[in-house]
UniProtKB/TrEMBL annotation:
GO molecular function terms noted in the UniProt entry: transmembrane transporter activity
Keywords: Cell membrane, Membrane, Transmembrane, Transmembrane helix
Spans traversing the lipid bilayer: 31-53, 60-83, 89-112, 142-158, 185-206, 212-232, 239-257, 263-283
Protein name per UniProt: ABC transporter permease
Top-level taxon: Bacteria
Organism for this UniProt entry: Rubrivivax albus
Keyword Secreted in record: no
InterPro entries in UniProt: ABC_transp_permease (IPR001851)
Keyword Plastid set for record: no
Cellular compartment(s): Cell membrane
Length: 306
């Protein structure tokens, strides 16, 4: 019974960075911008957050540094694709490759270092509830922040005027421009906010989830977060549920090893990525369903006055 509670707690912890990054990419895509650079942004944010935490001892500053690093890279991406009209796919891939190399270069001095024993968090009173306390109420505050952000972004997109404008920009930037909205600035704002959320995800990985730095720490989570937006059909609540699903698959490999299941560790490590491919393959069987839910101008450049 307690093992199940621990597995649920580990699932939430593992799914939190996927949820944060997935929500950030969702904002990008709702504005019509496809950013394939999540992996690179998360890596740069991870080293920025870890270096800050290592030098200052402050998690708050570490998360701020991670969010700032992610936002800065997103701004660079946004300027290239929104103003200079570079190809979104190629620019995103370049950003991802750059982030991997840059984080490895900057992080040389921090390889092998750790942040010491992690702080144990608990929600007062609720953490003492048998089973539920262990499963749900002993998480890092960022795990609860991810849940709060899910509801906040859902409200913003579907209940606020600003969210309606953002979705209009993603559906038909020409119409939004004709109505007087500054499409390019709105897209840049969405891209920057999305980059900041990817940055929080990267900082969470290096500061909380695995409080150490090694090259390639993100380990493909940026790509899984990117797949999550399609898996969730561009809905914030589904992004959160999908993140926990993939987090659970990730934790399953450790649960199976602990239970003594004789399966090669390499095969178990492949499970999250196999699950990603299977889910995308199943979704792709109904292209009409994807087309109905996908922002109509996703990945398409916008040229004012043309």
């Amino acid at each position: 019974m307690n093992e199940a509670a621990l597995l649920i707690a580990a699932t939430i912890a593992s799914g939190t960075p996927l949820a944060l990054a997935g929500l950030g990419l969702l904002l990008n895509e709702k504005a019509g911008v496809l950013n394939l650079g999540a992996e690179g942004m998360m890596l740069v944010a991870a080293i920025a957050g870890f270096a800050t935490a290592s030098l200052t001892g402050s998690q708050g500053l570490a998360f701020a540094a991670g969010a700032g690093a992610g936002a800065l890279m997103a701004v660079a991406f946004g300027v290239l694709v929104i103003w200079l009209n570079t190809n979104q796919y190629a620019t995103g891939l370049a950003l991802s490759i750059f982030g991997g190399g840059f984080s490895a270069f900057v992080g040389v001095a921090f390889v092998g270092k750790t942040l010491g024993e992690p702080v144990q968090y608990a929600v007062p009173l609720l953490a003492d509830i048998p089973w539920l306390g262990t499963a749900l109420f002993r998480q890092h505050p960022m795990a609860y922040a991810a849940i709060g952000l899910t509801f906040a972004i859902a409200w913003f997109l579907y209940r606020s005027r600003a969210g309606l404008v953002l979705r209009a920009v993603g559906e038909s930037p020409e119409s939004a421009h004709a109505l007087g909205y500054r499409v390019r600035l709105l897209r840049l704002a969405a891209v920057t906010a999305g980059g900041a959320l990817c940055g929080l995800a990267g900082a969470y990985l290096s500061v909380v989830y695995a409080p150490l730095w090694v090259e390639g720490l993100v380990a493909g989570r940026g790509w899984i977060a990117l797949a999550l937006t399609t898996f969730a059909t561009w809905r914030p609540a589904r992004v959160l549920l999908g993140a926990y699903l993939f987090g659970g698959v990730t934790m399953l490999q450790f649960a199976l090893q602990t239970a003594g299941v004789q399966v090669a560790s390499q095969l178990l490590a492949m499970l999250p990525y196999i699950a990603t491919i299977v889910v995308l393959a199943l979704i792709s069987r109904n292209p009409t369903w994807i087309r109905i839910n996908m922002p109509a101008s996703l990945g398409k450049p916008f040229h004012p006055g043309t």
